């Protein structure tokens, strides 16, 4: 009886872990955004943020050239990711774009800024809290795109959410995080979607 129970316990664990990994893969990669609705790949469903009073899109810059020490540009893969971002955001509104002054961030934002005919506003990576506070109170900036770094993007999300959703920086090789935070005007709730692109 005991051997049978252990066997079923291990089968249950295998089933549990296989379900979890499939769940993590499904519905987390963005296909496109159109009219405030995010379509997710692999029949992952949709995220409708049309009733949001404010929408934050926070991204780490795309893949950088690690052979350059000072202010590296994007690699070809990074440029492709920046173009993919522009394509994803083509069907939705963006009111304001912010980036640090580093080439890798500016070049990640550039295709979207050009497509939306918007300037890329500069912020200092060490002083992003005043930026978040001012945008939070800016009624003209509903749809906000901010490009930052592996350490600043999680920290910005924590400030917007007013909690410690992220306990550490993104891994140095992790370039595909797409953080979507929506706020509702009818209630003081904020929702975070941790997506990939």
3D structure, described in words:
This protein has about 200 residues and is α/β, with parallel strands linked by helices. It is about 35% helix and about 25% strand. The protein is built from five helices and nine strands. It has helices spanning about 1-25, 75-90, 105-115, 130-135, 150-160, and strands at about 30-35, 35-40, 45-50, 50-60, 95-100, 120, 145-150, 175-185, 190-195. A six-stranded mixed beta sheet has the order 6-5-7-4-8-9, with helices on both faces. A three-stranded antiparallel beta sheet has the order 1-2-3. A hairpin with a 2-residue loop joins strand 1 (about 30-35) and strand 2 (about 35-40). Helix 2 (about 75-90) packs parallel to helix 3 and helix 4 packs parallel to helix 5 (about 150-160). The longest helix is centred in the N-terminal third of the chain and has 24 residues, at about 1-25. The chain is globular. The model is unreliable at about 5-25 (pLDDT under 50).
Order of helices and strands: HEEEEHEHEHEHEE
Report on the biggest sheet. 6 strands, mixed
Give the overall shape. globular
- Uncertain parts: 6-27
Give a brief description.
The protein has 197 residues and is of the alpha/beta class.
Provide keyphrases for this structure.
six-stranded mixed sheet, 197 residues, globular, 36% helix, alpha/beta
Secondary structure layout:
Layout: H1 2-25, E1 30-34, E2 37-40, E3 46-48, E4 52-60, H2 76-89, E5 96-99, H3 103-116, E6 120-122, H4 128-136, E7 143-148, H5 152-161, E8 177-184, E9 190-196
Parallel strand pairs: 4-7, 5-6, 5-7
Antiparallel strand pairs: 1-2, 2-3, 4-8, 8-9
Helix pairs in contact: 2-3, 4-5
């Amino acid at each position: 009886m005991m051997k049978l129970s252990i066997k079923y316990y291990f089968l249950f664990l295998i089933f549990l872990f296989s379900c979890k990994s499939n769940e993590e893969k499904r519905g987390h990669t963005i296909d496109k955004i159109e009219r405030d609705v995010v379509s997710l790949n692999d029949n992952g469903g949709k995220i409708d943020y049309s009733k949001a009073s404010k929408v934050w899109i926070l991204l780490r810059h795309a893949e950088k050239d690690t052979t350059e020490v000072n202010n590296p540009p994007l690699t070809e893969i990074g440029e492709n990711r920046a173009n993919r971002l522009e394509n994803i955001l083509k069907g939705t509104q963006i009111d304001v774009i912010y980036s640090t002054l580093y080439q890798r961030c500016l070049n990640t934002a550039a295709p979207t800024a050009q497509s939306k005919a918007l300037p890329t506003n500069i912020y200092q990576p060490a002083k992003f809290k005043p930026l978040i506070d001012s945008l939070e109170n800016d009624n003209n900036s509903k749809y906000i795109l901010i490009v930052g770094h592996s350490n600043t993007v999680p920290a910005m999300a924590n400030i917007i959410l007013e909690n410690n959703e992220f306990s550490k920086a993104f891994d140095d090789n992790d370039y595909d995080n797409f953080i979507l935070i929506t706020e509702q005007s009818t209630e003081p709730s904020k929702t975070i979607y941790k997506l990939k692109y």
